Amino acid sequence: MKKLSLMAVGTILFTLTTLVAQPATLFALAPVKPEKKQDGIDVKSKEVKRFVANQSQIGYVSTRVFYTIVDQNLVVVIHLDNSKKDFPIKGKVYHFAKEVNAEGLAKWLNNQHSDGLYADAPEASATEDLPADCGKVLASKSSGKKDGGIGVYEQFDVKFKITGCKLKSGTKLLDFEDSASVYVPVK
Questions:
Q1: Which residues are within 8 A (CB) of 61 and not within 5 positions of it... i.e. 6 or more apart?
Q2: Distance separating alpha carbons of residues 87 and 161, to the nearest angstrom
Q3: Which of 72, 114, 120, 141 is deepest in the core (most CB within 10 A)?
Q4: Each residue of 64-103: pLDDT tens digit?
Q5: Beta strands in 17-58 (DSSP E)
Q6: CA distance 68 to 73
């Protein structure tokens, strides 16, 4: 074991005293980036899990895009109606209790689109409809016809935008654009 010289001990004590007396020095040694905090619901955050559902056992149905935001205990659902080629948009935010975790939210989401239901899936503690005027279709393009089980459907690639959504609770759904496939029954 090496013995420290009196000078080395003095240098160490001086450094420690300086760090304690001047906390700003710590930031110079190890810079910390402030956490970026959005004021509202951001479905484009990298932590958000996106899922698209547009099929059932009997064929294609209206498209629903689910955005699960675990750290805010909520799911945003955008509904693109497949009964009309202008694809009317509706949306809803489902709020869950604080104790609901990622697994619980995944079970709830599964029960919204699948026939394999989880009996222990949580229920939303509150829901809020998006204002009718905040969803807009930006573009749609047919990409052909598809057999959908009990009929033929025309597949459209639909680009949409959600803007200016202030919920009744006062929370804002931050503006975003997205796209999804919508299958319209061919008559």
A1: 54, 55, 82
A2: 12
A3: 72
A4: 999 999 999 999 999 999 999 999 999 999 999 999 999 9
A5: 49-56
A6: 8
